[in-house]
Amino acid sequence: MPIIETKQLVKTFGGLTAVSGFEIYLNAGELIGLIGPNGAGKTTAFNMLTGVYQPSSGDIRFLDESVVGKKPYEITQKGIARTFQNIRLFKDLSVIDNVKIAYHQNVKYSVAAGILGSKRFKQEEQEIAKKALELLKIFKLDHKAGEYAKNLPYGEQRRLEIARALATQPKLILLDEPAAGMNPQETQELMELIRFIRGAFDLTILLIEHDMSLVMNVCERIYVLDYGKIIAHGTPQEIKTNPKVIEAYLGEEVAI
Ligand SMILES: Nc1ncnc2c1ncn2[C@@H]1O[C@H](COP(=O)(O)OP(=O)(O)OP(=O)(O)O)[C@@H](O)[C@H]1O
C-alpha cells in the first residue's frame, strides 16, 4: 500500500486552474521526482500535500487517512515535512535553534513545566540539544551551530532547511528545489546526502527539482507536470525519451 496517494486533486485560483486531475502515489522508501516547466503547478501540488492550500476538489490519503482539511501543523505532526523553494529559516536565530524549534513539536512537557523549569523540562531540553547537534553533524553544520542562520552561505542554508525538516521526524519529506542556487560540487554532495538520509531515517522522498542530472540520478520514478496536468510518469529512462516531455520542455533552458 502506498504511504501517500492523491486522487483527482484540483486547485483553482479564481479562473485559473493551477493543478487538475493530479494523481500520484509513493511507496514507503521511494525517492520520486516531480518535474515540469515553470508555472506547471509543482509548488501548488506541494502546498496541497502540506495543507498550505486546501484542494478545490479531490483527496490526499496519507497512511490510509485523508489529510484534506487538516492544517499544516497537523500534517507535520502526522509525518509530512517539507522545505521551500524560497528558503524559510528563522534567519535571526542560531543554526541549532532552528533545528531545536522543529524538535519541540514532538515534546511532551507542559507550558507550566517549561516556565517553572522542572526536571523533566531540563532533561528534555538537553536531549533535544544533543539530537539537534547530531543532526547538524550529518549535514556538516555542527561547527556553525552558534551562528545566525542568515550568515550561512546559500548552500548551507538549504542544507539547514532539510535538517530542520528532518527534526520534525517525518515519514515523508517534500523537497522543493533543494539544489537551487548550488554549484555543481554542492549539488553532487546534496545528491549523496539525500540518498543517505533516505536510508538512515527510513524516509520516503518527493523532490521538485530543475536540475535534471540530480533528478535523473537519484529518483526511481518521475512524474512530469505541464499546465497543471501530469503528462508523463515513469523511470528516468522512460521520461528522458518521452516525446510529450521533450515537447513540454521545448523552449526551456533545461536540457533533459
Ligand atoms: N496563490 C496563488 N494565487 C494565484 N495563482 C497562483 C497562486 N499560486 C500559484 N498560482 C499560479 O498557479 C500556477 C502554478 O504555479 P506553481 O508555482 O505551482 O508552479 P511551479 O511548477 O511550482 O513553477 P516554478 O517551477 O516556476 O516554481 C501558475 O500559473 C501560478 O501563477
UniProtKB/TrEMBL annotation:
Family matches, as CDD domains: ABC_Mj1267_LivG_branched
Keyword list, A-Z: ATP-binding, Nucleotide-binding, Transport
The keyword ATP-binding belongs to this UniProt entry's keyword annotation: yes
Entry's Gene Ontology cellular component terms: plasma membrane
GO biological process: D-alanine transmembrane transport; L-alanine transport; L-isoleucine import across plasma membrane; L-valine import across plasma membrane
GO molecular function: ATP binding; ATP hydrolysis activity; L-isoleucine transmembrane transporter activity; L-phenylalanine transmembrane transporter activity; L-valine transmembrane transporter activity
Nucleotide-binding is among the record's keywords: yes
Ranges for domain ABC transporter: 4-252
PANTHER family assigned: AMINO ACID ABC TRANSPORTER ATP-BINDING PROTEIN (PTHR45772:SF7), CONSERVED COMPONENT OF ABC TRANSPORTER FOR NATURAL AMINO ACIDS-RELATED (PTHR45772)
Protein name: Branched-chain amino acid transport system ATP-binding protein
Origin species: Anaerosolibacter carboniphilus
